[in-house]
Fold F-box domain-containing protein.
Amino acid sequence: MSTTVDWSDLPPELLQIIATNLQTLRDYIRFRAVCQNWRSAASLNPRHLPLEFPWLMLPLSRSSNRRCFFNPLTKSLHRLTLPEASHSRRRAGSSFGWLVLIDETPSIFLINPLTRDKITLPPLSSFPNVTKFDFYSIGREYTVRSPENGIYFCNLREMRDSFIKKVILSHSPSDKSSFFALAILNRHENLAYCKNGHDSWKIIDQARSFSEDVIYFRDAFYAVDKFGSIAICKVNDGDMPVVNFINVGQQIGGDMQYLVDAMGDLLLVSRYLDFEIDIEHYLEVCNTVKFQVFRFDWNAQKWESMASLDDKVLFLGENSSLALPVSDYPGCKGNRIYFTDDYSGANYDGMAGDHDVGVYNLADGSIETLSCSPRNAHWPIWIAPTLC
């Protein structure tokens, strides 16, 4: 007579042995998804697993609750159930493996795509320049004060898509300690911040126009303007952040600027774009043509051009910029910049189209297009996968 085995009742010691012998993050996620007992036996911090190369998040279809993640190093696809990242919500950044999502309602929240842990941030209606939110004022739900102290109105979708450019975090939410979130505001070119657990955002008035990019570096938020000058913002629980400036006094070219913490070096990456008009879809189409990389010289207080990234690779886009050593990723080639389209109108308002996603070789200026991004894809964004 055959007997039925209840696999959920395997001894915890045996489950732990099995978990520690799994060799890929993908298998580890599947193991934890079996049942509560298996999940409890598998640590959220599996140090035995190799470091995972950043993934590119793409949706599968407009109606799907699942999201597709592409690993450009292994050319593998990972499909995860993630209804929280539906098409009614806009992604507005990723930091430490957590996505920032904005709803058509005022809500803003963080989510770890692998664990689906969720953390709420203060809503859109809590920004100081949002003077009123009325869900029943159809088409004029938000009343916003302009930088010139005028008033304008935004509907739900406009506010979701255009009010915030990008949100980055100071620390990983998984560290069980406090962290700050900083938002770059699109139209206002302001910076705003909040602490987790607080109920509103605060504007950093002194740092207006430093809205090209922001990273957290040396215990402060570093923000850069179009010309390469830097605002260093030390935020705290009080009302007055401390802001210092570095005016580099040199002309930095490019159409977009990114800041990167490259193992303790502060890098500035300038992105050059070629603009065309897509007559069929009435869109301005932008394509990346080259990058320039600079390292900040703290003694001379200026940017110095870099001919090579040596054994590093960079990840740029709507994510918090990343620099990684190729020695941690067998098969990875150094001196490359992995980039996504984080400027095109095709990312917003439900539009779809070709995306400017690829790998730039700093040695010869060549660009390899990533074939994972089909024409009907939305929302390309890098995320560093982590269970914690």
User: Anything to note?
Assistant: The chain has a mean pLDDT of 88. Residues 12-20 form the longest helix (9 residues).
